[in-house]
Amino acid sequence: MFFSTVVNQAMRILLHMILVGWLMACASANATPTTGEFLKLANSGSAGRATATAYLLGAVDMADGLTLAAPTLPQYCMPENVTQEQLLAMSKRYMENSPNDWHLPAFVLIYRALQNAWPCPAK
Predict the structure, then answer these.
(1) How many whole angstroms separate alpha carbon 31 and alpha carbon 103?
(2) Which residues of the chain register pLDDT less than 50?
(3) Comparing C-alpha atoms, which of 60, 62, 97, 93 is closest to residue 79?
(4) How far does CA 87 lie from the centroid of its chain?
(5) What is the predicted pLDDT for the residue at 96?
(6) Tell me, what DSSP letter sits at residue 44?
(7) 9, 78 in Cβ contact below 8 A?
(8) pLDDT, position 66
(9) pLDDT at position 22, please?
(10) pLDDT at 64
(11) CA distances from 73 to 39, 108, 115 (A)
């Protein structure tokens, strides 16, 4: 009897921990960094650079999906051989040259940077 009570308490604690972790993940998933926050992160050492690169790659994937889902949006034609380092350097340069927009979500300037760097040829 004692063993089953301990197991039940442990299971309840574990379920609460999972629930709290899930709620924290949901809350942080809604946190979109501003361009200024992205730049600080990208310039804050190797761990920050890695985090910024991961965000950037996710933003590019999302931008690719947007251009497929909504072909009326302005397009970009990024070459297939672009490296992560090039992508980060290009995005940072565009952002650093747009200080009036640092309050905007980083995704907005990433999308603009892609369009600026790799416009599609006129049809």
Answers:
(1) 14
(2) 15-16, 19-28
(3) 60
(4) 13
(5) 97
(6) S
(7) no
(8) 83
(9) 43
(10) 87
(11) 26, 13, 11
Percent helix, percent strand, percent coil in the chain, to nearest 5: 70, 0, 25
d(C-alpha 48, C-alpha 19), whole Å: 28
Q: Phi-psi bin for 69: left (phi > 0), alpha (psi -120 to 50), beta?
A: alpha
**Residues written for the chain:** 123
**Residues 7 and 75: beta-carbon distance below 8 Å:** no
* pLDDT for position 99: 96
The whole-number pLDDT of residue 91 equals 97
How far is residue 8 CA from its own chain's centroid? Answer: 39
Structure tokens at 3: 């063993």
Write the CA distances from 37 to 11, 22, 89, 102, integer angstroms: 39, 24, 16, 8
Interacting residues of 84 by C-beta distance below 8 A, sequence separation 6+: 53, 56, 57
How far is it, in rounded angstroms, from Cα 89 to Cα 113?
A: 11
> Quick one: pLDDT at residue 29?
53
